[in-house]
Design a protein that fits this description.
Elements (H helix, E strand, L loop, with lengths): L2 E7 L2 H10 L4 E7 L6 H10 L5 H9 L4 H8 L9 H13 L2 H12 L4 E4 L6 E6 L4 E3 L1 H5 L9 E7 L6 H9 L2 E4 L4 H10 L3 H7 L3 E5 L14 H12 L5 E5 L16 H6 L3 E5 L11 H12 L3
Helix pairs in contact: 1-3, 1-13, 2-5, 3-4, 5-6, 8-10, 9-11
């Protein structure tokens, strides 16, 4: 039986991993955040009342057998800013009356290698409380600060409160490994954990929890964060410690890029996490190479 791997994140970082992870003999389920409210996704949410399709589209395309062909089709953007993939998912949701059914239908059409699950099919908005007492409303406003220097994020929450899909909770319970992917901590990863039922399922599952740490910090979200800061924040919201931490070892010798996520292996291991130092640097030194990351995740998950 294949190792059951659940990935949790948003669209960009998670899809980068999935596009290569699908090449390994793993049973993959991708759980996708549903708080995006910007761009084409935001317009479709506003005008059609559908769930945000953008991150779902990216993950579906990433798991398709021929990513290049489907990316060219599904990512094609019309003059009004909408992508074909977003419009198809929105249309399928309106036709079937369910975001989950829409994703299932498009999954069949694309013959994807794995499953993609929206973490919830109930509309909600992400809020951030800042240390200066202000509240920022909406994933886009949190993700892209309107002020040059914004007060750090103190906490985040969803309003209204929403519940995870039963299929999501079942996938978490049955997983062998759960991988929190690279991506924005407060706007891509943690919104999944905020959905009612997810944190509790993560606390109870027998799966090992893996976190693939970012290479650089995100302005307005994680300025000056170290790997320990990322890890401690994740642990706080999950209510259970991460078991395995993947970090890019080239950070220690890279002097070409600012705002790197530095780490102290000794301190991290003393905190109880198993640290995996690997070369993940992409040609663009600000980014992580998805193929390298998938190889590391697959090797880790295939240990069982």
């Amino acid at each position: 039986m294949k190792t059951r791997v659940v990935t949790i994140g948003g669209g960009t970082g998670q899809s980068l991993l999935l596009s290569h992870l699908k090449d390994y003999p793993l049973d993959i389920t991708a759980i996708v955040s549903m708080v995006d409210n910007g761009g084409s996704t935001g317009l479709l949410r506003k005008h059609l009342g559908v769930m945000p399709p953008g991150d779902l589209r990216r993950c579906l395309v990433a798991l398709a057998p021929d990513t290049k062909i489907w990316s060219d089709v599904m990512e094609h953007r019309f003059g009004d800013g909408h992508t074909i993939g977003n419009l198809i998912l929105a249309g399928l949701e309106l036709k079937t009356g369910s975001c989950e059914k829409a994703v299932q239908q498009l999954s069949r059409w694309l013959h994807i290698r794995g499953r993609v699950l929206p973490v919830t099919c109930t509309a909600t908005t992400l809020y951030a409380r800042l240390f200066n007492g202000r509240t920022v409303v909406g994933e886009t406003n949190i993700d892209i600060p309107k002020q040059q220097r914004r007060s750090p994020i103190r906490s985040i929450y969803l309003k209204p409160a929403v519940t995870a899909l039963p299929s999501v909770l079942r996938a978490i319970r049955q997983a062998d490994y759960i991988v929190f992917t690279i991506g924005d901590l407060y706007t891509s990863l943690l919104p999944n954990v905020l959905v009612a039922g997810v944190a509790e399922a993560l606390q109870k599952t027998k799966a090992r929890l893996v976190y693939a740490c970012n290479r650089t910090t995100k302005d307005g979200e994680t300025n000056q964060y170290t790997a320990a800061d990322y890890l401690n924040t994740l642990n706080h919201y999950i209510g259970r410690p991460i078991d395995d931490l993947i970090v890019d070892k080239t950070i220690t010798t890279d002097h070409t890029v600012a705002h790197l996520v530095h780490y102290n292996r000794t301190g991290l291991e003393q905190a109880g996490v198993t640290v995996h130092e690997v070369d993940l640097r992409a040609k663009d030194h600000r980014k992580i190479d998805g193929k390298k990351l998938a190889a590391v995740v697959a090797k880790l998950c295939q240990r069982s």
